[in-house]
Amino acid sequence: MTFTKAYWDEHYDSRAPGAAHPPNPYLVAAAQHLPPGRALDAGCGEGAETIWLATRGWQVTAVDIAATALHRARRRAETSGLTDGIDWIQADLTEWTPAEGQFDLVCSHYVHPATSPGDLFRRLAAAVAPGGTLLLVGHHPSDHHTSGTPEAHVEIGDLAAVLDPAQWDIVVAEDRSRTMSHGGREITLHDTVLQARLAG
User: Fold this and answer.
1) What CATH number does domain 45-198 carry, 3.40.50.970, 3.40.50.150, 3.30.9.10, 3.60.15.10?
2) Which distant-in-sequence residues (6+ apart) come within 8 Å of 78 by Cβ?
């Protein structure tokens, strides 16, 4: 399967807006004690992480390929009283390159690029400012909810391979599982999580 713009447009257009999801718990754990600065949310979807960061004083650049997802995210931000502090960008992360060294926090949750994920992760890592944090969360190959789309899977080695150990301090590099509510029932997700800090 190729995760093209057409795929993501259909993905969001075919779903009615649901209740807003809480932010990813790995982001909350990584960022709750960081001083607010500039953040990049790459593949922001309907905006749960972007909105959580912005309500805590972060200036967020939120990027997604799907117009419907961005529209819903923007509406939810406005409903939360956020009229400033978020720069919404519709772009294909396969091609879009963020400014290098400009963000105190770069996060990406479950992005499925149409090309090699390593290329994307290298560009995201390059966007982190000295002393900044990189958080990458993906679907682990053992996650049965995404077993039909193995192209969406990522392993720790794939993530860590893009970081120069002389420049990065690895804070978390683990396969983790978590339980969440979906459609009125509890499901277990199996994730790959990398959190790292760039030397200042």
Assistant:
1) 3.40.50.150
2) none
Using alpha carbons only, how large is the chain's radius of gyration in Å?
16
Q: What is the DSSP string of 146-190?
A: GTT-GGGB--HHHHHTTS-TTTEEEEEEEEEEEEEEETTEEEEEE
What 8-state DSSP symbol labels residue 98?
P
Predicted TM-score (pTM) of the model is 0.88
- Sheet with 128-139, strands from edge to edge, namely 86-90, 59-64, 38-42, 103-109, 128-139, 185-198, 168-182
Dump pLDDT digits (tens) for 138-185.
875 666 665 556 566 677 888 888 899 999 999 999 988 777 666 667
Angstrom distance (rounded) from CA 189 to CA 169 = 26
Residue carrying structure tokens 């399967």: 1
